[in-house]
Amino acid sequence: MIIPIMVYAGYLSFKNYSVNQITESEVIMQSFTAKLGQLSHFALSDGTQVWLNSGSTIRFPDKFVGDKRKVELEGEAYFDVVKNSGQPFLVKTNDLNIEVLGTSFNVSNYHNDSILEVVLVEGKVKLFSEYNNKEQTYGYLVPGRKAVYNKKERKVLAGKVDVDKYISWRDGVLIFRGDPMNQVVKRLSRWFNVDITIADPEIENYVYTATFSNETLSQVLYLLKVSAPINYKNVAPKVLANGELSKQKIILTKKEDKNTGDDKAISSPVQLVFFFAKEYGEILVIT
Asked: 201 CB contacts (<8 Å, ≥6 apart)?
């Protein structure tokens, strides 16, 4: 089990150059990946702060030249962009581009997800894509809003959200607010670098509200077990052909005894009260 930790990489830059003194051919492209189960924080050459979530990769130049500051992202990152009206900041993905002057926002773009999410904390961002050398602009996002881009349909929907839920991960905190269990499992799997699967489809209908801060995987699984009719089974890692160990696998199943939702206090790092509403399949955890 790997518990997410923060890795501070400092300034990933070399020398200070004026933009008019260098050309793009002199730029050195770099790639930085946050290891599975770890969070990384560093600064780009212009001072822009970047937080990378577990298993995410960013590609960027050692110095920004040209009319835009371009970076490429796969995975999830939070950006606190230094303002430069003469050189907009551009986050490129395989599906959607996000352009800003100076602002703070979160982008979630894992390759195996069907959607891409952008949550704006402050400032203003432009959302657009490029197909066949043509630019399609979807609009502009304002603070407190989330844009969801459907990669297959190439459509964007936007709405107001609780921003903290989407950016708390950079502080080592996971927030769930009425999230379906399949989303909870996906985030926990990435967070702890494990493979959590749901064996009983009925469990997928549960929704979960909770805040986890510094809990271990064992503690989180225990909270899931005592707050709803859920059991879990640990499957030991296997030795792969290359000699490495596979991910730890955890299988969630439904308890036969459904009467497990009595409110009670438990011994844990946080004070929790549990409530299980059978008719709605809802798990409510109040912290």
From this structure: none
Q: Provide the terminal-to-terminal Cα distance of the chain, rounded to the nearest Å.
A: 25
State the average pLDDT over residues 77-94: 96
User: What is the Cα–Cα distance from 166 to 173, expressed in whole angstroms?
Assistant: 10
CATH architecture of 5-165: Sandwich (2.60)
What is the C-alpha separation between 77 and 170, in angstroms, rounded? 9
The structural domains of the chain, with segments of one domain joined by +, span 5-165, 172-286
260-283: string of b/e by CB count within 10 Å (b at 16+)? ebeeeeeeeeeebebebeeeebbb
> Starting at the edge strand that comes first in sequence, how are the strands of the sheet with 230-235 ordered?
195-198, 249-254, 230-235
From residue 287, how far is each of 37, 102, 211, 223, 229 by CA, in Å? 24, 35, 7, 12, 20
Per DSSP, the three-state class of 20 is helix
pLDDT-based confidence at residue 284 (cuts at 50, 70, 90): very low
Mean pLDDT rounded to a whole number for the chain: 82
pLDDT at 46 over 80: yes
Tell me the per-residue pLDDT of 112-145, one tens digit each, with 9 for 90 and over. Answer: 899 999 999 999 999 999 887 788 999 999 999 9
User: Does domain 172-286 bear CATH number 3.55.50.30?
Assistant: yes
As a whole number of angstroms, the distance between CA 158 and CA 143 comes to: 11
pTM: 0.79
Beta carbons within 10 angstroms of residue 31's beta carbon: 9
Residues 6+ apart with CB under 8 A from 154: 95, 129
